[in-house]
């Protein structure tokens, strides 16, 4: 075989049968792997498999030689063989102290004494019950789907299949419908952990005899441990270079010699093992039994419900149960030693070098890109978790500043290779807004870093950055530029030492100097091109000197002493929003916008650029086509290439900055005009388009504030435009209402004309009533004589559209105002806690919540700060305790106008404050976790929650009412300080996002669209695997990928697979985004749809119901989409022939629609008509006639008499009325027959009595309006009315005969 052929074979992925020989039972293990798999990946797999997890310190040997972790299997396997195979030997290795500590940590994890080591740094970011779940409460039933040929085309069924529910399932549905009528209770919406493992040991920790003395280290001792088993026995264990054994030490006596221990057969034996896990199994029978019990418990629930994320944060629920009491465990306090050693050196990491060296890894092959992106993502997330811990310590005052002589607001901190600074103005933003401008710039800087992450440019390096908002402070966490603390600041040396970092590009020395190193400028050229920046001249402060730069002069280029070129302060990668500044920023005005540091979003600039390019291409194409048409006939014209000069669509990011020349050249004026155009593009184009898109009844209206801001950001609209968007929505609503009124007048006039025509037709029909061709003449009389006579009003937009649009816009406006109020509330909390010690924050939060949300219970609440805290911090400003409801409302009103340029409407505190949704929004934004209980926001609610002494209540109500009775009633307030369970950091990171997985995903979609089904599905499933490799199994991006995969399988007619993937996506989303997040609600809707398509009606019902419950919780029952979902639930129960329950849901939907859309809206008419059909199925024909007539009258007024829907509804109303009359006539005849029979019977009885004989007692016949059509469907009833016999029931196709 040639060398080239061998190399080619190695580059192909082949399945290899791997055998690993073990030094313990079962002796060996076999499994298939890819030839791309490395030795290190096999090591990780063996470390996690139950049969080999006891090993942590081992190597994989081939021919008695331990192999390196980075080597792929293709190096050792004959891939050209028919069935490639490989046999490796697991070789146990000698321990050192570091390896022993890692092994002990792993055993503690397996014994359920601690979380995995990689998860422990997240403790400061994870609050109480992080990653809580409620999905496991749904209890999914097995799908009832008929088998289908895989090659069969996916087709929508003409009618829903008949569904039969068991009695148990029917009982569940009935209970679910009844609970839907119950009022919303906060205590019902807190999640929990689906399964908590029991510790397999009482304790496992370092004993009091550690650390090991120097003399014993020479004998091989590494650590001394103490472990107490569940049986209650305590063992002292020696960690030795050769393994672990029980020694003769006690709590008061040290003896390192091996100890004989009684075994299960009663014999004394020296116990020693290479694995501590195996040793403990020999010491404690319950150790293994408990682990088996835990494994059984975990196996009963999906892995996504309990798996710990490796590369992502879990969601912190804002509503939590009372925290459980901690269990004593000395090992918890020793975790830092176990992970970092005696001096913590193992925890110290050079984050910048680690991240930048990972970026420099090769990325020429597909496999190299996957490895590189996985390591980048992991390094970025590890940095984020460490940064959050440090930032929390900074806020709590646990880290010393490295510049203690400065003002406390200017303190900077350095810990574990991370640079921390408070986000305040250090003099750079004095003229543009101070600290608030600095906070805004920090956000924009992070956005710029995220963009650079996506670009992944080779020669330009950026710093790992995380922003942490915690109790009013914003902490910027960054890796320092290498050597920045050794910078030579001496002005005596004119020469520049290239080994020292300094600014070589952009502003320096408080913008008095502008540097433009030519070599560095060339490296920034790709950055400028990506952001569409124009090379331009920039001026220093005061406009004294200028230099040409490729990017904004605010962006600094620095040379690290590691030789890398770093770019920092990326907040000016988009232009200033000059239109907003000129209209709303005036520092001399009290109502001015707070700062001038307002820039456009990257999405807005990108959209503007895309449209400019599109217009230029179209113009050039039309020009070339015009020129081509002039060419002589018969000449073969060469196809021209369309070339667009993209430089004409670049912009100068520094125009309108405060550093301007004294006399602006013409070029600057042209640059200003272009930036002004981009600025107006947001307010004049993007905002109207955003509102128009959301008013469409096919679009899902935003669910909550987070959903709203996500949609705004995707559209390129900054949050500061919330007020302008609300004003545009208000104007649009007024326009639609005006058009709706005009439409109604037009329809009324048209109906009048139609009525007159109908009278003429009726008169003519009466005259021809006796003719021979009565039927023909009647049909002729109903035929329109002219278009003018029967023409309908304009159908460009109907009343249906107006009503649907108005409801969507009303919802949008409500959310916009609520979001402005919530953000203003966060601002007040931030300012109040900014200068206070951390321990005062719960008092601020509780008092503010009482003033804003509990004002109806007590408009003047009081707060009493703990005297011990007042003594500990006598200088603390507790002026917040003087807040009242009135003062808080005034603050919010003022802030909303300043920050969002919106004047809250009159009575806004009554109309736009929904206590539960607003409490949720504020809590999620500020990082508050509240105790899950039913809070009283009004005096009426307070009375209902009180439990009279001696009264009998069920356990649930007593449990919910007791906390309020004990706490809130005593203080006469809604919230107490004890209700604030935790305050957690709100984190914004810049973790690297994979691009290779997106490319594979897109390739799979392209294959599917081109008809290559198997290839497309294979690529999509491969992409899912890589998603999990890069991000870990529990991550938001993985959840989104599973959701898209579920939709793909559903589109391909594979509902079972769609359901499986959708459930998996939903479980991950619930834990990473929150049980009541908008992503989870949308995921519930999708899963419900897939369950319904899979014929799992019981599952679909409860999934949809959960979506409705959460929707009502986070917004309110009056969300338009809630109505649609309730109608869908009613239709599902109708399909299952649960007509009573279905009718209850349609009634609920009708009530909601009348509240949201109006009682005279066509949507309400449609629901009313559907309800009428259900009434016929329950034999309530009289009520069905009333409902159908009401529906008809609404349609007549809304869309006109000639509208198809109006005619159909009128026809149904007429037929129902005929049927009702027919039924009444039958009943009358039946009564007459019964009367005659009764009379006859009495006569016969009298005659018999005369003959002195006993007569038979006649039974009254059962009254039945018409047995032939009883219990028939609506369609059968209509056929009977029209003179057709009802159809006989047929056996289902393919069913039992």
TrEMBL record:
<keyword id="KW-0963">Cytoplasm</keyword>
<dbReference type="Pfam" id="PF15044">
    <property type="entry name" value="CLU_N"/>
</dbReference>
<dbReference type="Pfam" id="PF12807">
    <property type="entry name" value="eIF3_p135"/>
</dbReference>
<dbReference type="InterPro" id="IPR025697">
    <property type="entry name" value="CLU_dom"/>
</dbReference>
<feature type="region of interest" description="Disordered">
    <location>
        <begin position="1244"/>
        <end position="1297"/>
    </location>
</feature>
<dbReference type="InterPro" id="IPR019734">
    <property type="entry name" value="TPR_rpt"/>
</dbReference>
<feature type="domain" description="Clu">
    <location>
        <begin position="329"/>
        <end position="581"/>
    </location>
</feature>
<dbReference type="InterPro" id="IPR027523">
    <property type="entry name" value="CLU_prot"/>
</dbReference>
<dbReference type="Pfam" id="PF13236">
    <property type="entry name" value="CLU"/>
</dbReference>
<dbReference type="InterPro" id="IPR023231">
    <property type="entry name" value="GSKIP_dom_sf"/>
</dbReference>
<dbReference type="InterPro" id="IPR028275">
    <property type="entry name" value="CLU_N"/>
</dbReference>
<dbReference type="GO" id="GO:0005737">
    <property type="term" value="C:cytoplasm"/>
</dbReference>
<dbReference type="GO" id="GO:0048312">
    <property type="term" value="P:intracellular distribution of mitochondria"/>
</dbReference>
<dbReference type="GO" id="GO:0003729">
    <property type="term" value="F:mRNA binding"/>
</dbReference>
<dbReference type="InterPro" id="IPR033646">
    <property type="entry name" value="CLU-central"/>
</dbReference>
<dbReference type="InterPro" id="IPR011990">
    <property type="entry name" value="TPR-like_helical_dom_sf"/>
</dbReference>
<feature type="region of interest" description="Disordered">
    <location>
        <begin position="747"/>
        <end position="797"/>
    </location>
</feature>
<feature type="compositionally biased region" description="Basic and acidic residues">
    <location>
        <begin position="747"/>
        <end position="788"/>
    </location>
</feature>
<feature type="compositionally biased region" description="Basic residues">
    <location>
        <begin position="1287"/>
        <end position="1297"/>
    </location>
</feature>
<feature type="compositionally biased region" description="Basic and acidic residues">
    <location>
        <begin position="1244"/>
        <end position="1254"/>
    </location>
</feature>
<dbReference type="Pfam" id="PF13424">
    <property type="entry name" value="TPR_12"/>
</dbReference>
<feature type="compositionally biased region" description="Polar residues">
    <location>
        <begin position="1260"/>
        <end position="1274"/>
    </location>
</feature>
<protein>
    <recommendedName>
        <fullName>Clu domain-containing protein</fullName>
    </recommendedName>
</protein>
């Amino acid at each position: 075989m040639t060398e080239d052929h061998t190399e080619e074979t190695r580059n192909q992925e082949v399945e290899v049968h791997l055998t690993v020989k073990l030094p313990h039972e079962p002796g060996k293990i076999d499994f298939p792997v890819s030839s791309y798999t490395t030795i290190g990946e096999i090591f990780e797999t063996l470390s996690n498999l139950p049969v080999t997890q006891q090993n942590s310190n081992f190597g994989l040997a081939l021919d008695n030689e331990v192999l390196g972790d980075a080597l792929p299997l293709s190096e050792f396997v004959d891939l050209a063989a028919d069935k490639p195979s490989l046999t490796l030997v697991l070789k146990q290795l000698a321990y050192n102290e570091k390896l022993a500590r890692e092994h002990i940590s792993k055993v503690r994890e397996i014994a359920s004494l601690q979380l995995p080591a990689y998860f422990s740094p997240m403790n400061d970011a994870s609050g109480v019950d992080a990653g809580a779940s409620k999905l496991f409460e749904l209890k999914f039933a097995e799908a009832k789907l008929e088998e289908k040929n895989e090659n069969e085309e996916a087709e929508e069924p003409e009618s829903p299949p008949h569904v039969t529910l068991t009695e148990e399932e029917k009982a569940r549905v009935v209970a679910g419908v009844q609970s839907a009528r119950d009022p919303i209770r906060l205590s019902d919406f807190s999640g929990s952990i689906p399964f908590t493992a029991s510790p397999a040991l009482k304790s496992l920790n370092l004993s009091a005899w550690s650390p090991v003395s120097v003399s014993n280290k020479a004998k091989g001792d590494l650590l001394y441990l103490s472990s107490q088993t569940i049986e209650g026995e305590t063992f002292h264990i020696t960690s030795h270079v050769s393994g672990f054994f029980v020694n003769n030490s006690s709590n008061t006596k040290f003896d390192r010699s091996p100890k004989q221990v009684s075994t299960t057969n009663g014999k004394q034996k020296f116990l020693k093992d290479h694995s501590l896990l195996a040793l403990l199994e020999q010491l404690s029978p319950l150790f293994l039994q408990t682990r088996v019990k835990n494994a059984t418990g975990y196996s009963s629930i999906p892995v996504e419900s309990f798996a710990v994320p490796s590369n992502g944060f879990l969601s912190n629920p804002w509503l939590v149960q009372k925290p459980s009491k901690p269990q004593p465990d000395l090992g918890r306090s020793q975790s830092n030693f176990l992970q970092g050693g005696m001096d913590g050196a193992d925890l110290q990491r050079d984050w910048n070098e680690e991240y930048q060296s990972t970026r420099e890894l090769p990325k020429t092959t597909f496999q190299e890109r996957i490895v590189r992106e996985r390591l980048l993502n992991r390094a970025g997330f590890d940095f984020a978790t460490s940064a959050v811990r440090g930032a929390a310590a900074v806020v709590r005052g646990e880290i010393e500043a490295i510049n203690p002589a400065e003002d406390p607001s200017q303190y900077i901190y350095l810990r574990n290779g991370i640079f921390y600074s408070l986000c305040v103005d250090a003099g750079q933003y004095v003229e543009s807004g101070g600290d608030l401008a600095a906070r805004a710039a920090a956000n924009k800087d992070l956005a710029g870093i995220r963009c650079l992450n996506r670009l992944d440019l080779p020669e330009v390096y950026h710093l790992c950055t995380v922003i942490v908002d915690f109790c009013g402070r914003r902490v910027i966490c960054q890796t320092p530029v290498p050597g920045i603390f050794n910078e030579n600041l001496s002005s005596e040396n004119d020469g520049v030492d290239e080994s020292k970092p300094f600014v070589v590009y952009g502003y320096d020395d408080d913008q008095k100097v502008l540097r433009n190193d030519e070599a560095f400028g060339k490296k920034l050229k790709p950055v400028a091109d990506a952001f569409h920046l124009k090379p331009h001249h920039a001026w220093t402060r005061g406009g004294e000197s200028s230099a040409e730069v490729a990017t904004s002069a605010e962006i600094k280029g620095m040379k690290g002493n590691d030789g890398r070129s770093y770019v920092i302060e990326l907040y000016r990668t988009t232009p200033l929003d000059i239109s907003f500044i000129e209209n709303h920023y005036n520092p001399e005005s009290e109502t001015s916008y707070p700062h001038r540091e307002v820039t456009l979003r990257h999405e807005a600039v990108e959209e503007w650029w895309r449209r400019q390019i599109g217009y230029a291409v179209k113009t050039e194409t039309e020009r070339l086509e015009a020129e081509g048409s002039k060419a002589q006939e018969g000449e073969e014209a060469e196809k021209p290439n369309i070339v667009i000069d993209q430089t004409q669509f670049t912009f100068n990011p520094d125009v309108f900055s405060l550093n301007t020349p004294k006399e602006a050249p013409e070029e600057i004026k042209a640059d200003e005009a272009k930036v002004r155009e981009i600025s107006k593009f947001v307010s004049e184009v993007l905002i109207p388009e955003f509102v128009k898109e959301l008013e469409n009844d096919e679009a899902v209206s935003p669910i909550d504030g987070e959903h709203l801001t996500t949609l705004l950001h995707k559209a390129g609209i900054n949050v500061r435009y919330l007020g302008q968007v609300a004003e545009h929505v208000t104007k649009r609503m007024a326009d639609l209402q005006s058009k709706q009124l005009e439409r109604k007048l037009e329809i009324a006039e048209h109906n009048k004309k139609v009525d007159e025509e109908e009278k003429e037709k009726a008169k003519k029909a009466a005259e021809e009533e006796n003719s021979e061709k009565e039927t023909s003449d009647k049909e002729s009389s109903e035929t329109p004589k002219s278009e003018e006579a029967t023409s309908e009003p304009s159908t460009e937009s109907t009343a249906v559209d107006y009503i649907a649009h108005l409801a969507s816009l009303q919802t949008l406006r409500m959310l916009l105002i609520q979001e402005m109020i919530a953000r203003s509330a966060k601002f007040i909390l931030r300012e109040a806690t900014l200068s206070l010690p951390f321990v005062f924050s719960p008092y601020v939060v509780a008092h503010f919540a009482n003033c804003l949300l509990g004002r109806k219970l007590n408009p003047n609440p009081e707060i009493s700060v703990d005297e011990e805290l007042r003594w500990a911090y006598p200088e603390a400003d507790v002026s917040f305790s003087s807040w009242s409801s009135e003062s808080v409302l005034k603050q919010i009103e003022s802030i909303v106008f300043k920050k969002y340029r919106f004047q809250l409407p009159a009575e806004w505190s009554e109309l736009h404050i929904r206590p539960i949704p607003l409490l949720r929004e504020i809590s999620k934004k500020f990082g508050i976790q509240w105790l899950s209980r039913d809070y009283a926001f009004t005096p009426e609610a307070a009375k209902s929650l009180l439990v009279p002494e001696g009264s009998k209540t069920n356990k649930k109500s007593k449990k919910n009412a007791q906390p309020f009775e004990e706490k809130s009633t005593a203080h006469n307030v809604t919230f107490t300080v004890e209700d604030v369970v935790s305050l957690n950091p709100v984190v914004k990171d810049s973790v690297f996002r994979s691009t290779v997985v997106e490319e594979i995903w897109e390739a799979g979609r392209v294959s599917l669209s081109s008809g290559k089904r198997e290839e497309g599905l294979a690529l999509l499933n491969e992409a899912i695997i890589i998603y999990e490799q890069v991000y870990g199994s529990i991550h938001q991006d993985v959840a989104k990928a599973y959701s898209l995969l579920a939709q793909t399988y559903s589109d391909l007619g594979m509902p079972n697979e769609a359901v499986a993937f959708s459930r998996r996506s939903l479980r991950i989303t619930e834990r990473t985004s929150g049980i009541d997040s908008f992503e989870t609600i949308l995921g519930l809707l999708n899963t419900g749809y897939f369950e319904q398509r899979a014929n799992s009606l019981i599952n679909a019902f409860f999934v949809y119901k959960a979506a409705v419950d959460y929707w009502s919780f986070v917004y309110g029952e009056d969300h338009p989409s809630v109505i649609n979902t309730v109608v869908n639930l009613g239709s599902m129960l109708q399909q299952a022939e649960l007509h009573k329950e279905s009718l209850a849901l349609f009634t609920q939907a009708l009530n909601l629609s009348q509240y949201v859309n109006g009682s005279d809206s066509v949507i309400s008419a449609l629901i009313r008509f559907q309800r009428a059909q259900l009434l016929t199925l329950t034999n309530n024909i009289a009520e069905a006639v009333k409902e159908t007539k009401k529906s008809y009258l609404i349609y007549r007024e809304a869309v006109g008499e000639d509208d198809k829907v109006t005619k159909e509804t009128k026809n149904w109303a007429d037929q129902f009325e005929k049927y009702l009359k027919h039924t009444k006539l039958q009943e009358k005849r039946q009564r007459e027959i019964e009367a005659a029979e009764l009379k006859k019977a009495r006569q016969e009885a009298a005659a018999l009595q005369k003959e002195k004989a006993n007569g038979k007692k006649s039974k009254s016949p059962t009254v039945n309006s018409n047995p032939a059509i009883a219990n028939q469907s609506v369609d059968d009833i209509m056929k009977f009315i029209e003179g057709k016999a009802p159809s006989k029931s047929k056996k289902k196709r393919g069913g039992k005969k």
